[in-house]
Amino acid sequence: MRYVLLIGCLIGLVVVSQAQDDVVITSHGEKIQVRVQDDGRLSINVPSESIRDFKAAGLVRYSDFGAKGDGKTDDINAIAATHAFANVYGLPVKADDKASYYIGGKQRTAIIKTDTDFGKASFIIDDTDVERRGAAVFMVSSGMRTFTPEGITSLRKSQAKLDLTLPGPCLVTVTNANVKRYIRFGPNQNNGSPQTDIFVVDENGNVDMDAPIIWDFDQITDITALPIDETPLEITGGTFTTIANNAESKYTYYSRNIAIRRSNVTVDGLVHYVTGEGDRGAPYSGFIDVGNCAYVTVKNTVLTGRKTYTTIGSAGGPVSMGTYDISVNRAVNVSFINCTQTNDINDPTYWGIMGSNFGKNLLYDGCTLSRFDAHQGVANATVRNSTLGHMGINAIGTGTFTITNSTILGRSLINLRPDYGSTWQGELIIQDCVFKPTVRKLSSVSLISGRHTGLHDFGYICYMPERITIENLKIDDSNIPGDYEGPALFADFNPKMQDESYQEQFPYVKTKEVILKNVSTTSGKSLRISDNMFMFKEVKVL
């Protein structure tokens, strides 16, 4: 957002003008006023005496700018005005604890750049009639400006240093639009995404190797750098209720969320409910939407799984639409700590709560949620001290995926997503866990599932984890039907690959080594390698 501050004297009055895309602030007269101009911008007037009072109090409230908090009056203009003023003067924002702020469908986003305490207040977000479904209700934004670093024309995978000097630590995003990755296969097939990478670089050009560059860039068509805010920003409390849209069930995603686009942010103690879901509805891209930033923590937060609706996919057949309350895209070092959801994590009528793309170093710690998911790749992920429900762990990516002291209730312990090649280039570590497969017509159980025919070009070489370490795993298979032969380490990734006659056009690199220590089953049946012994004949099990 762009700010302009002008201070001068005019007929004995101090005039302050501030521009923030859709907001103008002035200071004259004796009354705080918020109005909408003909061009749609907010015009905010705050007298000089009021400015002094706010500075002395050390905070501003939504009620100071006209919010009613009665649960009926649309308060979005007052809320946006409060944050716009707070952003200029560096003041935190506090909601009134007993207020119920109604937010209708107007196209207005409140920009958050200072600490915000939603406290015990309630927020009703009505999505039944919105002007712009893709607009966030709140956007946590950086005061820093994105810029284009000069002189970087190529990059190598795992490159440790860039030949540049930066004003401070920056989040760098690089794209080569001439190379396509993640060419999706299946009912939602597509032509892939431009090769993209995102990583943190310090002022001397050193790349944070805990989240390394994962692609070779022979050419760079776009590169940007966003300075990382050094001062932490905190958002606390608040109970939010979304009245769900009743739009046609197709891929017209709604945002209407809290979008985090600033680094070094903590969300603590927020609660989000969903009501009004009917027989149809368009999907949501995530109420907590983390993107283009680094070092974000969401903790002690309660979220809600969304109802699953179906539509016709790009291949012409019916598909269930992904719809999320958590979304992470192009973000590094994002943690979810002690987070839960309001509905049953094993109820399949609700879609898995989280989706992500282009993430690095994603963490669940102490969470009870229906799913962890990485669509277009994650570099390094950890699930610990957590319980995951009916959609379990779905991921593709690189680096190390660690699962410790957790209970997994999905159809497999970890599913390597077939629509993106069932690829994990790196290592899988599972320690001190319980796997209790959901039955749902299961006749076989596998720890690691996926599918790869070797006949589709995903835009990259596909790998299984090079090394898999499983230590102290209890497989609770007591609810599996009687003809069950016992759990398999690997699912049958390619039922047609039964002998040497099967030729992969795009060879799948298999696991080299599996280390098993203290793996037990409730049924007493032994862990097998796979139903497809030919495919995994070269795997060394220790």
Any overview of this molecule?
By secondary structure, this protein is mainly beta. The protein contains 2 helices and 39 strands. It has a 25-stranded parallel sheet that branches. The protein has a 5-stranded mixed sheet with strand order 1-2-3-5-4, with helices on one face. A hairpin with a 2-residue loop joins strand 1 (6-10) and strand 2 (13-19). It is globular. The N and C termini lie far apart (56 Å).
Let me know the average pLDDT.
Answer: 93
Range of strand content: over 45%
Span between termini? 56 Å
Helical content (DSSP H or I, runs of 4+): under 10%
What structural category arises from helix and sheet content? mainly beta
What is the overall shape? Answer: globular
Low-confidence stretches: 1-19
DSSP strand tally:
39
Biggest sheet character: 25 strands, parallel
Our count of domains comes out at: 4
Structure annotation, total helices: 2
* Rg calc: 25 Å
Concise synopsis of the structure shown:
This protein is mainly β.
Key attributes of the depicted protein:
single chain; mainly beta; 4 domains; five-stranded mixed sheet; 2 helices; 39 strands
